[in-house]
Each structure stands twice: as C-alpha cells, then as structure tokens.
Amino acid sequence: MAKSRKVKNETSVSMRLCGDTHRILRKMAISKKTNVSNIIRQMIDKCLAKEEFREDIDDISANLIVHIKNYLEPQVSRIIKCVIKGSITSSAGYFLNAKALEEFIPPHRQQEFLESLQESRAMGVKYIQSRNKGLEAFMEDESWFNNNQ
C-alpha cells in the first residue's frame, strides 16, 4: 500500500464507519494499491466536483436560454410580421369581395346581405379569439351561430 502523504493545509478528520463500509473501502484500497484514507479523499473530491458541476450546469442553462432567446427573437418577430401582413391582405380581400358582391345584390336584399356580412365578420373574429379549437371543430360547434342571432 502507498504511504500516507502529508500535504500543506491538510486537516485530519476522524470518522466512524460501519463494518461493511470499511470492508468495501479496504477492498477498493487494496485493488488500487493505496490506503483507505486516499480512497475516501478521492470519493469526497469526486462528490464535491459533481456538486460544483451542478452549479455550473445551472449557470450554463441560464446562459443558453438567454442565447437561444436572442437568436430566436428576430426570427419570431419576422414570422409575426408575416402573419400580420397575411391578415391585412386577407382583410383587404374580404373587403374587396364584399364590395364586388354588393354590386350584384338587388337593392331589396342589401340589408340582408349587410347583416350576413356582419355575422361572417363576427364569426371570423370569434374564431381568431378561440385559440383552443381548430377550424373544423369551430365550424361544427353551432354555439357561435346561436350567439350571433
């Protein structure tokens, strides 16, 4: 077995171990050609290094989140701008279609057409506001229709 070494700033600590633990440590020491104190020191060092690593992981994770957000923010903003432009274009199309259809509606049915147009607009707004439903589920649910009448 290796001789015990004295290192500056080293403190001696006494501890009690159960018989099984001591036997396991002695076997480890024999197989590594060292003494039980060195085995315990190595285990403590490894445990402390793991604890330090956990703290480092938290710092690394926080840093990663910041970098990912900084990277994604311009892309998300671009997507949002595209969606907004698409919505504006869609609204313009809606308006132009309504104006074009209005010319073909006879005067005595204009009021009915305008009410229908208003209902469809209200339904579109309600659909946009209902984030939990897909379009098919929304259309199958007739409560939106009953609420608009």
What are its keywords?
about 150 residues; mainly alpha; 5 helices; about 75% helix; rod-shaped
What does this structure look like?
This protein has helices at residues 19-31, 36-104, 110-129, 135-140, 143-148. The chain is mainly α and 149 residues long. It has a domain at 15-82.
Order of helices and strands: HHHHH
Which structural class do you get from the secondary structure elements?
mainly alpha
Average pLDDT metric: 82
Unreliable runs, pLDDT <50, ≥5 residues? none
Question: What's the total count of β strands?
Answer: 0
In short:
The protein is mainly α. It has helices at residues 19-31, 36-104, 110-129, 135-140, 143-148.
Q: How would you summarize the topology of this molecule?
A:
Blueprint (H helix, E strand, L loop, with lengths): L18 H13 L4 H69 L5 H20 L5 H6 L2 H6 L1
Helix pairs in contact: 1-2
